[in-house]
Amino acid sequence: MSGMDKAKNKLEELAGMVKEAVGKVTGDTSTENEGKRDQAKSNLKDAGEKVKDAFKKK
């Protein structure tokens, strides 16, 4: 996994955490759920990159 992809995924995850927290504080479940989705999407991308790396090493 390239360092740039890893950094992008981490930023997306952090942005999702912020959205989720803002949604909780403001009582906006839509924003809260969007933050959770962003985090999940970031985690899936990260997992996909790790799988690609595993196959490159073989």
Automatic annotation (TrEMBL):
Gene3D superfamilies attached to this UniProt entry: YjbJ
Region spans: Disordered: 22-58
InterPro entries per record: CsbD, YjbJ_sf
Bias kind Basic and acidic residues: ranges: 33-58
Pfam (any one): CsbD
SUPFAM superfamilies: Hypothetical protein YjbJ
CsbD-like domain segment(s): 5-57
Family: Belongs to the UPF0337 (CsbD) family.
Identification of the protein by name: General stress protein CsbD
Organism annotation: Mycobacterium nebraskense
